[in-house]
Amino acid sequence: MVKAQKNTMKALIKSTILIVVTSLVLPSCVSIQTSPVSGNKRAYGYSWEQELQIGKDADSEIIAQYGLYDDEELSNYVNELGQELLRVSHFNREDTPSEYRNTDFTFRVLASPVVNAFALPGGYVYVTRGLLAHLENEAQLMVVLGHEIGHVAARHASQRAAEQQFGQLAIIGGAVLGESIGLDGGNILQLSSQTAQLLFLSYSRDDERESDQLGVEYSAMKGYKASEGGEFFRSLKRISEKSGYNIPSHLSSHPDPGEREENIPRLANEWSEKGYEQTIVDGDEYLNMIDNIMYGDNPREGFERNGIFYHPDLKFQFPVPAGFNVINQPSAVILVNENQDAVVQFSIDNESSTPEESVKAFLNQEGVNTLEQNATQPNGLTGYEAEASLQQEDGTSLTIDITALSYNGNIYNFLGYTTSDQFGAYQSEFNSVPNGFERLVDSSILNIQPVRLELIKTTRSGSFSSFLPSNLPLNIEPIDVAIINQVQLEENIPSGSWIKIPRQ
What we know:
Number of strands: 23
Radius of gyration: 24 Å
Helix content: 25-40%
Oligomer: single chain
Largest sheet: 7 strands, antiparallel
């Protein structure tokens, strides 16, 4: 019984955290269509028109969840490179079926510190600032962008949807790199929440290999040194090993980064033998574009330290109960206990004008049974709180503690819940969070700034470690900086080399 309750709670936690992209659960109907890549007949779960709509509808959800990185010049740069690759891709070839030709693509830079890239059906490609910080040159970026264009061109998501219709194993997923290295903080729930938002099926190893082939093909045709993509996957392997979230190849849908490190140069050589000269690297131009890029989490958007969650921009703080992990996302802050059977969700209510209105809007939902409610004034703030219960379809009863507070022109909601039989054990912890909500006055935290990568040019030769400052920002280790630069700590760095140094 306990195990069943825990599984129920885990499912509920995940469903609460996720922002569902409804367009991606369009009813699909398997049909045989011509592949724009191979020209062969393949089974697809969606029509091409549906895929175009899926991408368009989901794009706004992705932006709302991750946010766009605030650097117009860098965003334009990534988009221009992506558009260049499109000109040699299957979307612009005479032998490609007409319905696919000249498909409009959108390339975006997301404000996420996670090292990742992914694509939505229909022509939406995303790279994170975290990924850009780890690349060393334009050639590497081209291989990544080409890889994502390849997923769209080969219609891999639609193929996996077709397989699901046939009753084969399906796994929610989609992020091309995130599964290999873990997500920020290594939180499993965050991994689930971020990938599941895409709501298309996880690519197979063969899908990934095909996209690697296409990424190399498109890059080589534009004259880029596609073998550089192997260097990035070497770096990705190091990130994976350091994070502790390295997924064995037999368990992951993605090929091992070490395998891709070897295969990509081999694929690049095949295109060289076909007569495609690959000389463009453009390291200096690329590094100049990412100079001053944000690195790691942005503390201005909230962070936890020593059991307190701080939000410098919104000027508040609240306690985090012992044993609870923090998942900070643009839409909400989720506190999940280690057993994953209790949750506190914190968010802004943009619909209500008072705390009482906010709480009652929740209580008035179908299926919610109000147990008690009253006004409250934690730390002198105007508030309203209630206790309610909710019966799940499987018969599990949940008890919910909800508090709304008015502060600096916003209505903030705290929603704590667990199974009813465990509510008594967690009630004090649920109450401690809103009761500890207060104004942030510590100037050192109010003025904290994000870490940024400063591009410096060496004036001497020496080991990479010799160029590192003694006062690296908090939680950044020398090995992290070496990985960012795709070098070893004791590797000799020639004079006149550009290196990325984190500063705060």
